[in-house]
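Sequence in, structure out.
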Amino acid sequence: MAPLPKTSDTSEKSTFDDIVIRYLGQFGKYQKVIFFLVCLPSIITAMDALSWTFTGAKIPHRCRGTTEASTADYWKPANPNLYKITNCTLEGSSKSQCPFEECRIGNSFTCPSGYVYDNEEIQLSAIQRWDIVCEKSIIRAVIQSAYYIGQMLGSLTFGFLADRIGRKTVFFVALSIQFVSGIGMALSPYWILYAIFRIAIGFAHPGIFVMAVVIGVELIGPKYRRLASVSTSIFWAVGQIILGILAYNIRDYRYLHAAIALPALMFISYYWIIPESARWLVAHGRFSEADAILQRAAKMNNKDLPIHWFKELEEEEYNRIKNNEKKRKYNFFDLVRTPSIRKRTIAIFFCWPICSMLYYGISMNSNFLGGDLYWTFIFGGLSEIPACILTYLLLDRIGRKAILVSGFFIASFTMVSSLIINKNFHVIVGIVQSLLSKSAMAATYTSLYSFTPELFPTVIRNLGMGGSSMMARFGAIAASYISMWLVDRFGILTMVIPFSILGVAAGIVILVFLPETKGKKLPESIEDIENEYFK
């Protein structure tokens, strides 16, 4: 067999990317099919991640009188004189439909006899089933934050395992955990067990979402990888839209969880369809298995792949071992060891949790600026799609910093403006404000995924991304308590004020402390950045 053809610059070693570009094409039919298939489960991860918005939806409630059954009519208490009306803007005969003060009856600030719920909009919420209201209302935030704790653990675990046992194995283990946990949430008799399954759901999602992206992207040429990253954000947005539609039609939280979990069964077929990452197989010296995958890909792409294409790669690896070429091992301390890297690390670690806090806070409480819970959520998901597409089109035109700063500032402005807007137009304009905030943060999140890897040199790029992802989880946990507990107890100001201030602060930090990376060559070593060559 003829040797592998050389590139025009023979001094360069052939890499896996060279093989992909030369013999398969940057983004051929095979890559498109595999990428589409592995991204489909990402739709379910979005649905599970935000399902608590509906399954844990707050239901109007009042204290139950000592002579009332739990099924009593919310609007017709046995002793109306014991109740106070709150937050009422209705007039005339409609006054009878004003909600009651939720956690008080007579002179008591508790509900010793339990609660009566208004099930006109929602048939059964987990909040109602376990009486997660009044003095127990913080449990609502605890359950949502459990998801992000699981996600943090899953990121650490599956990231470690994927490099050792393979992407495909991790992918299917995570899919199995997701399905079992989804059904478990639907059947849980106690909120603590429900929260444990919620941790498991969060734990599984990095193994699905991240590994799906890795399996797909590792077979795509460099030219299309940014498009692939934006595409995964679009799949996530589609998941939100589907969740909103399902929640609108399924008002019992148990059936909603089942409707989300059951489609995961069809992904079992992926075991025979989705291949292991050929790049990972090559990295572990399993060339014959990688060859079988790439030969199949070449055939579908109508390309010719030499039988022994891996010989040159194998020889390079052999020579490296023979010559005992050892590479320095880097760790998280290298993110703060030197001045310029330290400045970038601190700045970006400050921005990631704020971005996550704003994005998930708005998503979990989509109607906090006004509007219907379901329709605002659905249109919020729809608004992310053009935001992601626009981000892709503008990243290399106006730069990363312009999009990031604009996204943070727009989201902050729309939230602050809600405090001074005319109340007569609050519902209509509130929906627009919510959609602007959501789409701005979606664009910001998408941009951060492109911007952050470009800030760090190759030798610590994964460490930088891993640390950023971990910091983002802290922001999401904080958002759970703010949007699902503090807002209910102390009002909308507890969400608008910290979110808007932190959003502006993040924009300023990016503007002042971080460099623009548009059109810049990716730094390879820490010395490249410290010598200011790439600034």
